[in-house]
Amino acid sequence: VQLVETGGGSVQAGGSLTLSCAASGITFDPYVIGWFRQAPGKEREFVAAIRRSGGSAYYADSLRGRFTISRDNAKNTAYLQMNSLKPEDTGVYYCAASTTWGTTRQADFGSWGQGTQVTVSS
């Protein structure tokens, strides 16, 4: 699966961004899609993941309520809506595909995009 993230950019604190993750090369439907992020000087961390059907999702505890993951299988695209952004949300955001539901482990996600930069200024 080839994944390409778009939608990153610079925004002021309190603002919103929506990231997109477009898949190509294979049918999108069977995969759990996850979002991860890596802040400067920190390890990459789990953000959210969504079930194949899009019917359910799970989030990092610290982000639940501000971030919303969704997907449109007809468009082979997943999204991450980010609201009330904070400077600490700054980082590179990656989407990834997995065949395992319920995991937050990066090792369980076998395909990764190149990432998109999100910068939140105070």
Q: Characterize the main sheet.
A: 7 strands, mixed
Instruction: Calculate the terminal CA-CA distance, rounded to whole Å.
Output: 36 Å
Low-confidence stretches: none
Question: What's the β-strand tally?
Answer: 11
The portion of residues forming beta strands comes to over 45%
- The number of distinct helices, counting runs of at least 4 residues, comes to 0
Radius of gyration from the alpha-carbon trace, in angstroms: 13 Å
Helix-strand makeup class: mainly beta
User: Based on CA inertia axes, which overall geometry fits?
Assistant: globular
Q: What order do the helices and strands follow?
A: EEEEEEEEEEE
User: Please, what is the average pLDDT?
Assistant: 95
Helix amount: under 10%
Question: Which structural traits does this protein have?
Answer:
mainly beta; seven-stranded mixed sheet; 122 residues; 11 strands; four-stranded antiparallel sheet
